[in-house]
Every structure is written in structure tokens, then in C-alpha cells.
Design a protein that fits this description.
alpha/beta, 33 strands, six-stranded parallel β-sheet, DNA binding, binds adenosine-5'-triphosphate, binds zinc ion, seven-stranded parallel β-sheet, single chain
Amino acid sequence: MSGSELSASPQPDRHCDPCYVEALVDCPGSPQVLTYRIPTGHTIAVGDILTVPLGRQQVGAIALRLTPDLPRDLDPGQVRAIEAVASSSLFPPGYWTLLQTVADYYHSSLMATIRVVLPPGLLRRSQKRVKLLPPQNLGPEAPLSPLAQQILQVLKSSKTGDYSWTHIQKKIKGAAPGLRELQRHQRVAVYLQTQSPTQPKTRRVATLIHEQPLASSLTPRQQEVLQFLKQRGGELWAVDLMGSTHASPGLIQTLARKGAIALSDRETLRLESSLMAADHPQSLTLHQRKALEAIQSVQGFGTVLLHGVTGSGKTEVYLQAIAPILAAGQSALLLVPEIGLTPQISDRVRARFGQRVRVYHSALSEGERYDTWRVLLQSDPQVVVGTRSAIFAPLGNLGLIILDEEHDGGYKQESPAPCYHARTVAHWRAQLANCPLILGSATPSLESWHRVQAAAPWPEAAQPQPVVPQPSPAAPAGSALYVRLPERVHAQPLPPIVLVDMRQELQRGNRTLLSQRIQQGLAKLQAEQQQGLLFINRRGHSTFVSCRSCGYVVECPNCSVSLTYHHTHHPSTPLLRCHYCNHTAPQPPKCPSCGSPYFRYFGSGTQRVMEELREQFPTLRVLRFDSDTTRRKGAHRELLTRFSQGEVDLMVGTQMVTKGLDIPQVQFVGVLAADSLLNLSDFRASERTMQTLLQVAGRTGRGTQPGQVVIQTYNPEHPVLQAVKDYQFQAFTQSELAMRQALQYPPYGQLLLLKLSSPNPVLVEQTAQEMASLLREMLGALWENFALLGPAPAQVLKVARRFRWQILLKLPENLEATPLSTPLPLDYLRSRCPREVRLGIDVDPLHFG
Ligand SMILES: Nc1ncnc2c1ncn2[C@@H]1O[C@H](COP(=O)(O)OP(=O)(O)OP(=O)(O)O)[C@@H](O)[C@H]1O
Ligand SMILES: [Zn+2]
Ligand SMILES: [Zn+2]
């Protein structure tokens, strides 16, 4: 299997007999591919989880390849047989091709890919167990050796007559011959138990049987509880019934005794679910209808870039595109870039499709992930809503993939390897499933924009050609459609954007964080019963703390960055925290260097703004929404509900407030320091600024009133800010693309970042230099326009006591979603890397820190 052969492989032959299997074995330390014999009578398919012998242990393995022949160098006598198939049919067809493609393209191993993708514990060891068999009356029992009798004694001491083999071995030295003897005499059975990572969870369910049981009469209170149960469809979890009716467990028991209800334990899957009022498809606007038609015109694989301004009703288009897929018995995947967006979107999807909706993201517990995986494997049509890892959800019959906010950096995995981008993987997955891929955004990425540039906008475009699954993962040019939703659903105007020059504010004597315009906006909120959002690019209190007399800055002992001041609420101790390694220390009362008690706080994080708001607007009800306040499970949903129900006037937050919120009462959006977005030393800074600002602006004016956006900056003439002010997305994109082309940055060339780190600062620098010259030599011969930038120390040289260097490769071809045509000598580089130096590879990197 190689990355360039991307076609769904047919289900492997299940009757390969006799034959061998190459299995990826979960060896301690590093996984290996080993060959095993398949005992006659066993059938195995690629992807089955196996239990195989390794040394004296039984370990987990995944069947990778079935083969009739042994490799020459293996002696058939030495090849061991697999012990058992622990579970089969765990993966949909084509799934292994997808994983192999990911591993190849991102220069990672298949095992690393599997670890990122599969629910943890799927490969966990199965356990060999021994159990007593009931005595058989086959005449006089044969005499047993003392060793065998000893084993029997141990087994008899167990209530269930059953122990793990490890336990028996611990009790009795050299027990193996005894066990064989007992097996021969059919006194014991040896079996394998796969350790399910979690036990199935059961819950008590109450089911209505008789409203008026004949045998005995019911009290009014009991009738009341029954009525409630009836209204809710006749079946509820017992805890929910008690919770909603305030009935005691005793009352529920009585109802069961009287024959009015039945109580039973039912296995529950740990799946998120909430009761949703059902909703119905909206009648589409003209633009939405055209977009839907375009999507439905795609036969087989093809991409559709849905470019719809904020509030244009993209979600409704997604929902109506999903409906016929489900009706046809297929499943759909809907991805969002950030976990904070899953409650909002999954609520909307559930309201439409009810119980067929599953939520899948990495913050699920081990048990939840495992359970969801099990449910997804059933063939029912389902909708999976999730973050980037959900692109690997094991749906068999996939009919549609949608990436909402496709431009968002949250789709890129930073660590651990493989550093995949869900959009790139989505292309491959859609291709394998031969289904459409919708990329939706108000501010498409330059990558996606570039891809469809050649395509004329629908419906002027020529009818897209029927798409045959392509042998190469690159999207065939003919199947990329571009569809626009140019206006909001009720044709509301986009909110006007005002740039405020903070230099002038200072001249006028305003030294606070809030310009006059923002102050005015906030002052109106309560009076007019409206809500507002305040966006700050940073969390925490301030970027750093320094001594007023000597300038000393408190730094992280492990990383070369200053610590950030955190002060959640008043009586709590102010803390200094490192945003790289999470090192935390109390704020020192005196300067460690000169002893002065006076400190200065630079920058403006969410906490600092909260304090300033409290001083200037004491009655304003403010909510903080950032990664500090949303750490708890369920916190996102809770805070958003409080906000959407009008319990607060203003929400202050980081990136999280910029996306997805659809609340008509939001009439005001303030952006505190636009410059902090622009000044990132990254070639994508302009693109990201544009996207972030247009997204956050789009949160307002979604009701009947136009809304207002105020952006504070020290640099109002900046071309990006000017483009934002006039909503000149297209013009901006064109000029940005021209610049990228001139510099051969993506989407015109491909980047590859080699990241080296080591506790030894000298060694890591030396290794980086050596690798750079090796690469220059080897790649320079291959590509004329190839460029190697660096080696250079990473922006933050030291993180968690490791020194970091990097090498950036700029490769000339437009290779997004195409495995490199020329293999890089990365394995060779890895082999040249000293043990103390770690080498990480980031293909198509988004962050260069
Ligand atoms: N055809 C329609 N008729 C009436 N209301 C609609 C229609 N389509 C969408 N809406 C409503 O318009 C609002 C905005 O839609 P939606 O949130 O889907 O926009 P969006 O394009 O996803 O926005 P954003 O990119 O800003 O998140 C929602 O409240 C939605 O219920
Ligand atoms: Zn000092
Ligand atoms: Zn640190």
C-alpha cells in the first residue's frame, strides 16, 4: 500500500487457507510488523484485532496484510500461530488505505497514526485465563501429578473457578506442564479474554405498563408521576423520572410493585445526548437553493467551496444537504474546528435529525470514545458532528463530508504526530468514499480559494463532469465547485465596521484600554436591552510582569518566555503561569532582583479587561469566555446558554467568541488590540487577521438591527484593516495570493518544517547544521527552486527544558493533498539524528513557533 494508490481496496479474501498474516504488534517500546500463521479454520480480515504470542506473552496486534507465502528468510517451522481474533469488523472498507496515506504523507508511522485515530485501549492486551471444567463422568479419574493438583487447588479457591494465567503462574512456579496436563484431561479450559477498556455501563429504565393497574389503586401522587411518564413517551431513565417529578426511589419502587411500571437495567452507551425540540427544514432563500443544487449536482467525489458571508445560512444548507443522504441510508460527517463549537452545532443537528446524531471529539472520555466507536460501526445512517479527529470516525457508508469554517487553524494537529490537517484528510476520505466534500466558510482559506479559482461560480459553471474516483489523491480539477451566498438570510446588511486610532485616544488623554467608541457602545447595552462581545487576542491577565525600578521580568525556569499573570477573582492568590509548559508560581511580593515591591503589568489579557470593565461599568453583567473559564466539561454549553438567555450583557473572550455564535440580540462587537493579530511573525498573519476580524464582526447585526463593530488599533492605515473595514475579502485575497505566488509560499509551494529539540543546546544546534547541509546537497539536486530556510532557533528557543531549532523547507510544487512526488530522505535524516535529539516533521505547517 502506498500513498499514491488511493482507491478503496475490495474486502480482503476471507478464505485464504492456509496462509499467513502480517500483523502490527504492540510490542513494548516500539510496535513491529511480524508474520504469524493463521491456524486452519480461522478466518481473518485486514483490520481485525488479534491476540498473538510474543515471547512468553500474549499481546494485541492488528492484521495488516494476508499473504499466502512466507518471506524467504523465514522458516515456516519458526512462525508462530495467532492465538485468537479478539474483535473483527472494526473498520469500514478503505479505512486502512486512509490511515496508510496519512502516515505516508505526514511522514509518520502507521502505528503513530493508529494511536492518534483509534480509541485508546482497543489494542490493549487480552488476558489468558484458565477455568475449571465440570467433572465428567467418564469412569475413574486419571491420577494427576502434584503440579496439576496444585493448579486445581488454586482454581478451586476462586469462587468462579477461574483465574488469570498470570495469577496462577505467580502462585505456582513452572506451572506450564501442569496446565498442559489438565488440558489433556479436560479438567480445565484455557481462554482469552479481551480486556474491554471499559465495562458496559447500565442504567435503570422505567417503562410504563398500566396506567390503571387492576390489582391495586394508585394515590394521586403516584398517578401524577405515571402521567408524566406517559407524556414523555412511556419510557424514561429512572433518575430522570425522579428528577423531573421529585419522586422518591420508594415511590418508583411502589409503582413497579403495583405493576404500573417495569424497572429494568439497560446497557447505556456513554453518548452525549440532550432533549431537543424538533425543528423543521426552513424554506430556502434563492441563494441557499442554488447552493444546495450545486452540492447535489456532484456525482461521486467532488469538492464544493461554499463561500457564504456570516449569517447567510450555511448551516441550513448543510442540514438540507445531509437529509437526503440519510434518507438514502448513508451517513454524513460534519466537522467544526473547535470543541467549543460542538454544543451549538450538535444541538442544531440533533433538532433536525434526532437520535441519529453522534458527537465525536478528543475530549470525550475513554469510555465515551469507545462507545461512540461501537455505535458508529453499526450500519445505520448517522450524522457525526465532531472536531478534527472525527474525520477518522469509522463510518462505513459515508455519503457526505462537510467542514464548517474550513479556513480555521483548529483543523491542524500540532502534536502528537502525525501533524495532519483534517481538510487534507477529508479530501482523501471523500475520494475513498466517492462522495462530495463541502468546505464552508465566510472567509475561505487561500488554499481552498486557489483550488477553485479556475472554476467559474455555479451555476454559470459547466455541468461538473461525472467524477470517477481518481488514482491520485489530488482533487481532479473538474470537480471543484465554487458557490457563493452573498447576503444574509433576511438580506440584513453586514454590520458597519469602524477603526479607532488608539494614538489619537492617547492624545486626547484616554489612558484606559477602552476607546471612547467602545465605552459608548457598552454604555448603551443595558439601556437598550442588547448584548455585546469584546474580543481580545490573549487570555490571562497581562502578557508579562516587570519590576518598576529595575525592569526585572519573571521568566519561566523551563522555557525562554516570560510568565503570564493570572488572577481569577479577588480573594484568590495571583499566579504567574507559563503558557508553554504550564509552570505555575505565586506572584512574588517583592522583585527577586532588587527587592522593590512595585510591579508593572504589560499587555491586556481577558482578566485585565474584566477588571477595567468592573471599574468603569460596575453594573454591567460581564461573562468571561476563554480557555481558562471553559476548562470544565460542559462549561462551553453552560456559559453560552447563560449568554443566549440574556443573563449577561457582555461576553469577553479570546478566539472562542469569534466563531459560530448566532444570537440576534448581539448588537455590539468590540476588538481591543487588532495589532496583536497583525504583528505575528508569520506569513499567514494577514490572512488570519482578515479571517478573525470578519468572523467576529459577523456575530452582530443578525437580528433586525444593523449592529456595530469597533476595532481598536495603533495602525488604522494597515491594508488588511482597510480591507476588513470595507469587507473587501475578494480583493484582499487576490493581492495576498499574488504575494504568495511571488514568494512561493502555499498554496503555490509546499512547506515542510523539521523540528529538532534536545536538552543539550550545543548538540541540537550542531545536528540542525548538519542536517541542513545534508538536505541542501540532496534536495538541491532534485529541485531548481527548492529553498531551505535556516536552520534557526525556534521563536521560543527553550520549552520545557528542551532547546529547539528548526529547518524550513520550501518545495516548489503545489503539493497540497498530494504526497510528495519525490520522496524526501527523511528516514536517512532520522538515522543520522543523535539519540539525545528529537526530530519532528510537520508537513504543511501552520505554526512556526
Ligand atoms: N432559509 C432560511 N429562512 C429563515 N431563516 C434562516 C434560513 N436559513 C438560515 N436561517 C437562520 O439564519 C441564521 C443564520 O444562519 P447560520 O447560522 O446558518 O449562518 P452561517 O452562514 O452559518 O453563519 P456564520 O458563518 O456566521 O456562523 C440562523 O438563525 C438560521 O436559523
Ligand atoms: Zn527590581
Ligand atoms: Zn514554561
